[in-house]
Amino acid sequence: FAHALSINASALQRLDLNGNAITDIGAQILVDMLRTNKTLVKLTLSFNRITNEGMEMFAKVLTEENSTLQW
User: Fold this and answer.
1) How far is CA 47 from each of CA 2, 9, 36, rounded to the nearest angstrom?
2) What are the DSSP calls for 2-68, one per residue?
3) Rounded to the nearest 10 degrees, what angle do helices 52-64 and 24-34 cross at?
4) pTM: predicted TM-score of the whole model, two decimal places
5) How much is the pLDDT for 54?
6) Which pLDDT does position 70 carry in this prediction?
7) Based on C-alpha coordinates, what's the Rg of the chain?
8) pLDDT in tens for each of the 71 residues of the chain?
9) Residue 47: left (phi > 0), alpha (psi -120 to 50), or beta?
């Protein structure tokens, strides 16, 4: 799933992953996808199990490597 989103041929612009029990391990997979995905503009992750460590990974990739996702 994350691999498919990392390919820029993906036309997906919005992804709602609310309430999926995503942990920091899942967050790392999503962060890796965000490094190359340039089509996704909205990613919703409310009500998951991502800790401050996982959120720091998102903050880093969004400020340094991905300019298309709006946050």
Assistant:
1) 19, 29, 25
2) HHHHHSTT----EEE-TTS---HHHHHHHHHHHTT--S--EEE--SS---HHHHHHHHHHHHHT--S
3) 0
4) 0.85
5) 98
6) 84
7) 11
8) 666 667 665 688 999 999 999 999 999 999 999 998 888 999 999 999 999 999 999 999 999 999 898 86
9) left
How far apart are alpha carbons 34 and 6 in whole angstroms?
Answer: 7
- State the DSSP string of 31-44: HHHHTT--S--EEE
If one counts every other C-beta atom within 10 angstroms of the C-beta of residue 6, the result is 16
- CA-wise closest residue to 36 among 60, 2, 59, 13: 2
Q: What pLDDT is attached to residue 36?
A: 87
In whole angstroms, what is the distance from residue 27 CA to residue 61 CA?
11
Structure tokens at 33: 């996808």
